[in-house]
Design brief:
- The chain is mostly helical.
- Helix content is about 65%, strand content about 0%.
- The longest helix is centred in the C-terminal third of the chain and has 19 residues.
- It is globular.
- The two termini are about 20 Å apart.
């Protein structure tokens, strides 16, 4: 079982690094979702509207739509880093509550972290992994508390 991370204190430099990287990768939603589902195929059945074949699903409008939803969510959180923690927490609590209702677990969220950090390294953003891990810890602190029924 994955533990709920402590709420990190992010430095201005970490926030700037994540926001800078994000500007370069936010158009890669299909690749991010595909990398996650390919690395952890046990999660693919959760996306029922995508069918049974991940490779075939990747090129569909439904796959792009799902990827766009993930990117839009991350965009909403990342743009609030360093300036609107209340707004970021509201988005994260909402996601945690909705994903709890779908039966999504902390382990599945952690698998997304593993895939994201590996992909960031593959794309040349490995130098900022510490900042990304702080960002994900912040996100997971709020999301995991919501999954546990104790939103922060």
């Amino acid at each position: 079982m994955v533990a709920t991370p402590a709420m990190p204190s992010m430095t201005d430099a970490q926030v700037a690094a994540v926001k800078g990287d994000w500007e370069k990768i936010k158009g890669s939603g299909v690749e991010i979702l595909y990398f996650f589902l390919n690395k952890f195929p046990g999660n693919f059945p959760m996306f029922k509207k995508l069918g049974n074949d991940l490779a075939a699903a990747k090129g569909t409008a439904e796959f792009k739509d799902q990827a766009d939803k993930i990117i839009a969510f991350l965009q909403g959180v990342i743009e609030k880093l360093g300036s609107d923690m209340g707004g970021a927490k509201a988005l994260l609590n909402q996601l945690g509550t909705s994903h709890k209702a779908m039966g999504i677990t902390k382990d599945q969220f952690d698998q997304f972290r593993q895939a994201l950090t590996e992909l960031l390294g593959n794309l040349g953003f490995g130098g900022n992994i510490g900042a990304w891990n702080a960002t994900v810890d912040l996100m997971f602190h709020v999301i995991f508390n919501a999954l546990d029924g104790t939103p922060v």
